[in-house]
Specification:
By secondary structure, this protein is of the alpha/beta class. The chain has one domain (16-224, 249-259): Alpha-Beta Barrel (TIM Barrel). The protein is 38% helix and 17% strand. Strands 3-4-5-8-9-10-11 form a seven-stranded parallel sheet, with helices on one face. Helix 1 (44-56) crosses helix 2. The two termini are 20 Å apart. The model is unreliable at 1-6 (pLDDT under 50).
């Protein structure tokens, strides 16, 4: 396997989130909740072990949201990791509600976002959120109103840095007219590159891009081209796909999630995989 230097997640290099510097291999915590990201995990102690192991492997950026559980994921993170070690950055999100297991409804009303933020502060046991992302624009609420409410909360000292999620290039520009934006989280993976224009804009501006569904729920792993590169490089298909993301852009910050210790270790090991130009061409 071709490798780069450095242990664990640190081998992927680092990226800035405003004045915060994190390793470019993060952890998406949503999967430590119950099935369908609904309710608590069947084995709470196992979920805690996964979260703690992520830090042992050098991960210092964890992504979560109040809608994961809902209101379960943030509690699990605090149970496992609080008091938080120096250098750990936790990013959470608000703007989606879960009236039932299979519903993810957008809610960008300012009053809801204010309540959501206060809830996240309590569950995470912090006085200020490191990175707070607006989870998804709500077509029923003007985007500027939602972002203005979050900017007001930032000025009040409850948010350190702001990010946006599931946005277009135009919406990113609109958000930046209201407040500094340090991150964008859009769906992006080997087989779904519809956010390429947003990724390119983030690279131009120096804004971190967090691809959600980075492994395409496992769908990309069965592709023949991925298997060929994995065999040639001595890696697993998941590691190949994550290494491809890291190579795609210097602002890419993958946040693969899992409830499995083995899969966590496999994913973080992708930080050390350097794909050749031939491999990258084959995957493109």
């Amino acid at each position: 396997m071709a490798t780069s230097t450095g242990p664990g997640a640190a081998a992927a290099g680092a990226i800035q989130l405003g004045d915060l510097r994190v390793h470019r291999m993060g952890f998406g915590a949503m999967r430590v909740c119950g099935p369908d990201v609904w309710g608590p995990p069947k084995d709470r102690a196992a979920a805690h072990r996964v979260l703690r192991r992520a830090l042992e492997l050098g991960v210092n950026f964890i992504d979560t949201a109040d809608s994961y559980g809902p209101e379960v994921d943030e509690v699990l993170i605090a149970e496992a990791l609080h008091p938080y070690p120096d250098g750990l950055v936790i990013g959470t999100k608000g703007g989606l509600v879960r009236p039932s297991r299979h519903r993810w409804d957008r809610c960008g009303r300012p009053e809801h976002l204010r309540r959501a933020l206060e809830g996240s502060l309590l569950r995470l046991k912090v006085e200020r959120i490191d990175v707070y992302q607006y989870h998804a624009p709500d077509p029923a609420v003007p985007f500027v109103e939602s972002m203005a409410a979050l900017a007001e909360l930032q000025r009040a000292g409850k948010i350190r840095h702001l990010g946006v999620s599931n946005v277009s290039v135009a919406e990113l520009a609109e958000a930046r007219r209201i407040a500094p934006i340090v991150s964008v989280q859009n769906r992006y993976n080997l087989s779904d590159r519809r956010s390429d224009p947003v990724l390119e804009e983030c690279a131009r501006l120096g804004i971190a891009f967090l691809p959600w569904f980075p492994l395409d729920a496992g769908q990309s792993l069965g592709a023949a081209k991925v298997k060929r590169v994995a065999k040639r490089s001595g890696a697993t298909p998941a590691q190949v796909v994550l290494a491809w993301l890291l190579a795609r852009s210097p602002v890419m910050l993958p946040i693969p999630g899992t409830a499995s210790l083995a899969h966590l270790e496999e994913n973080v090991a992708a930080a050390r995989l350097a794909l050749s130009a031939e491999d990258l061409a084959a995957l493109d």
